[in-house]
Amino acid sequence: MAMTMHLDIVSAEEGIFSGTVHEVYAPSKSGELGIFPRHAQLLSQLVPGEVRVKAEGHSEMLHFFVSGGMLEVQPHVVTVLADTAIRAKDLDEAQALEAKQRAEEAMGNREAEADYARAQAELIQAEAQLRMIKNIRSITRG
């Protein structure tokens, strides 16, 4: 019998996923983390990007976008506490492109340092969403 662990992906708005999984890949400040059952305890800051999950009963990886947050790992439980979490199927490419364009324009209008920092964060998030959409497309085509 394959070893498993429990995964919860939650955002401020709602729980996105809760279930039994075999592996989890998450974007952290130090690079992508691969988490497997009985992993050492870990607490890591997440950056905008893709969380990939090999869930029990699914032949394909499940994909989720997180805008940042925290990852907590216990030997048999993994928790993703995301600022924002979106199922891959719910990502909107046109919306991400529009957000990217707005952020780039806002960065060009350096009226206030806080506005620039916010625009920069929005740009990073939009670019991460677009990368994820592109990656998923290449997986489904290949």
Automatic annotation (TrEMBL):
Mode of membrane association: Peripheral membrane protein
Main location: membrane
Top-level taxon of the source organism: Bacteria
CDD domains reported in the protein's UniProt record: F1-ATPase_delta
Localization: Cell membrane
Subunit record text: F-type ATPases have 2 components, CF(1) - the catalytic core - and CF(0) - the membrane proton channel. CF(1) has five subunits: alpha(3), beta(3), gamma(1), delta(1), epsilon(1). CF(0) has three main subunits: a, b and c.
Protein family according to the UniProt entry: Belongs to the ATPase epsilon chain family.
Protein name in the entry: ATP synthase epsilon chain
Source lineage: Bacteria, Pseudomonadati, Pseudomonadota, Gammaproteobacteria, Chromatiales
Annotated gene: atpC
